[in-house]
Amino acid sequence: MPAVSAAALVMLGITVAQAGGPAPAPASGGRAVGRAVLKAARIGGVMVLTNAQGFTLYSFAPDTPATSHCTGSCGAYWPPVTGTPAAGPGLPGRLGTITRPGGTTQATYNGHPLYTYVGDARPGQANGNNLNLNGGLWHEVTIPGAGHR
Predict the structure, then answer these.
(1) 118-136: per-residue pLDDT in tens?
(2) CB 41 within 8 A of CB 48
(3) What are the helix (H) ranges across 74-146?
(4) Nearest-10 Cα torsion for 116, 96, 144, 79
């Protein structure tokens, strides 16, 4: 039954997000401060980018390599990965940063600003993959050459 309860909680969050209601509190492990360590992990049979705690990282389709379009209440559901990124062992790809509105530094991977999702309650989940919320489509960040969903 816990899986059903977790799914119901995620759906409730999605419904509230679409309705423009109050945002939930950020999930633990969501936001990194200072040095954002990024690593690869196999989740659902696909190699994806995660933070140091193993939470899946996401990109937002409306973003550009220089600009995050997830601001305001969007950032409460999709907390940006803040700080300067550092690659875990063997992680391929290009790390960088952008400056968010308000001056916060946000980590990027291969030109994509990075986020976690409050609907991922524990490491190894990818509940935000392929969701169309907050004005655009969200995707887990896959590792180049490691396969895609």
Answers:
(1) 999 999 999 999 999 999 9
(2) yes
(3) 74-77
(4) 10
Consecutive 10-residue runs of the chain (149 residues): their mean pLDDT? 42 41 38 74 95 97 97 96 94 96 95 98 97 97 71
Residues in Cβ contact with 4 at an 8 Å cutoff, skipping those fewer than 6 apart: none
Contact 121, 30 (CB under 8 A): no
Cβ atoms 142, 148 nearer than 8 A: yes
Closest CA to 94 of 81, 84, 109: 109
- Which segments of the chain are extended strands (E)? 35-43, 46-51, 58-60, 84-87, 95-99, 105-109, 112-113, 132-133, 136-140
CA distance linking residue 134 with residue 70, whole number of Å: 8
Instruction: Kindly state the DSSP code that residue 136 receives in the 8-state scheme.
Output: E
Task: Give every strand in the sheet of 132-133, ordered side by side.
Answer: 58-60, 136-140, 132-133
Token digits of residue 146: 């490691």
